[in-house]
Amino acid sequence: MKIILLHNSTHSQMMGMIIVTGNGRIITIDGGTKGDKDEFKRIVCENGSKIDLWLLTHPHADHHGVFVDMSNSLDTDIKIDKVCYCPAADDYITTDPDFHAVDVNIIKETMAQTRYPVQIVKKGDIFNIDNVKVEVLRVVNPNLNPCSVNDLSVVYSITEMVDGICKFKLMILGDMSVPGGKELLELYKDNPDALRADGVQMAHHGQGGVSREVYVAIDAKYAFWPTPDWLWTNTINKDEPGQGPWQTLIVRKWMEDLNTTAITAMEKHVVFDTDIMTVTNL
Predict the structure, then answer these.
(1) What are phi and psi of 37, to 5 degrees?
(2) DSSP of 2-71, one letter per residue?
(3) What stretches in the chain show pLDDT beneath 50?
(4) What is the reported pTM?
């Protein structure tokens, strides 16, 4: 399979991934901001114009913006078979600033009116697209309330199977932060193999996400960083790299010490091919 990590079309951080199976079927994860829609759609259309499974992690505009905009528009050039997400509880209280609460309401309203088929996922759900298995490992915990919007992230494992054997497994963490990561470790303390994977999507764009212990448990060889260049270098001012408020440089050191190979899309969309374990620009 091919894992396409999308480059940000605007200055904003974003996350969008497109997986193309060996038989050309498509699984998408999030998509990015509204400003990333054209490139997202272009790549999907170049690969058959049909999304078999769209996985949404959590309600932040830099993740769900493409989906919201497509749901609110009248374009019909892309067919979508199923959209998966998990809503916040009705009594959800966010510990984040007010504008993050707005994102929660936007996705709730969008899901109520979207023309696309939607499934609310639960832990243990499995979806099979060709020889690719998607399993839901963690969903919204109503007992973790109040919590940040980031900890509403659904965790998905995506496994390419060949002759009944795992060829490549990718762990999707969304924007999950330390409390959510702690919960994930607790959920699988008696089944650590469930968390081990060949690749991991870096939580919260590789800064301020889960603790180092989560990455140790996953034990991935490849780290997929949905991270723009300014965040990668922790640069709030272009003349002062490394002086920003983010934790990216710390997390980068974690992953270097864990001997992971960084997959980034800071300049262009990139394609990771699991047949040959190499990255090319798209």
Answers:
(1) -60, -45
(2) EEEEPPPSSSS---EEEEE-TTS-EEEEE---GGGHHHHHHHHHHTTSEESEEE---S-HHHHHHHHHHH
(3) none
(4) 0.97
